[in-house]
Amino acid sequence: MREAGIDRKWVGALALGCVLLTLVFIAHGFPYGALAVRTVAALERSTGGHLEYANFRSVFGWAGPTLQWQDVVYRDPAGNQFAFDRVNVCAGWSLDWFAGTPVLHVELTGPDGRIAGLARGGAEPSFDGTLDQVDLEAIPSGWLGPQILVTGRVDGEVDVRVGPLRPAGTVRVQGRDGSLGGGPLNIGIPFDELVAHVSLGGEHHAQVETFHLKGPLLEADVTGTVGDAPTVHEAPLDLVAEINADAAMLHALEELGFGSLSAGASTLTITGTASSPKVR
Question: How many CB atoms are closer than 10 A to CB 90?
């Protein structure tokens, strides 16, 4: 009995030693540099963009080994540029790995805010995560709509996948202390509060479930659809806006061709296309 007990102790010690040696190899001996180069190359191939960074290192955190890039600049095919102080990537906890679908936990942080969540590969790549204090000025105007200019910071949730034709999913954001302009608006309308819930994909480019804007000059609620088209610029609009503005704001909107508006609540229909909207 004593020998069996000694044997079990030795076996346990040997197993523990193997585990510790494995952890040491993972933390210090694994070729993370080569993996980082392959990861960047895969990103550039899949997106058509270009990524540059000043430093790379591997860190060992609560989720295991993490790849960390510092002072990162990414340029998409359209020439839009995104800069981050730090980008962390590690394996994401998901059963999708057993189906052969890679899942990574991604965290991007910088002066323009923080984006974090799970990125899935496969035939339809997806991202499910959160936005924290993201600067709207850093988002390319082409992503929001032709000539749209918006400032402020938003928090929110994003669950989007890249389908065969266009992105699909949902975007929910809450913003504050900014302004909205561009398009038919050649003035910036300040807002204290912005709430948006948009569904992407299906029969439309986007279904605007909720778009609420509240500021010192105007309060507005917009619902409707941005229809299907080869490009966002050509997408047909079918929107309804309920607005309540002060007299000075109403006069400014009338000068911009928004029709004759009455004091108090007014209802506007927005048709035409995203690049050439018609308001009545």
Answer: 20
Burial class (CB in 10 A: 0-12, 13-18, 19+), 13: exposed
Number of helices (H), then strands (E), belonging to the chain: the values are: 4, 15
Q: Got the DSSP string for 63-117?
A: TEEEEEEEEEEEE-TT--EEEEEEEEEEE---GGGGGT--EEEEEEEETTEEEEE
d(CA 235, CA 200): 13
Mind listing the pLDDT tens digit for each residue in 118-167?
988 777 888 999 999 999 888 876 666 656 788 999 999 999 988 777 78
H/E run at residue 53:
strand 50-61
From the list 117, 97, 99, the residue with the least C-alpha distance to 107 is 117
Name the residue type at position 10: W
C-alpha torsion angle, residues 196, 197, 198, 199 (rounded to 10): 170
CA distance 271 to 120: 36
**Of all helices (H) and strands (E), which one includes residue 55?**
strand 50-61
Other beta carbons within 10 Å of 113: 18
Q: Which two tokens stand for residue 16?
A: 């523990």
Distances (CA, A) of 101 to 10, 97, 126, 159, 161: 39, 5, 11, 17, 14
The predicted model scores a pTM of 0.79
Phi, psi of 234 (to 5 degrees): -90, -5
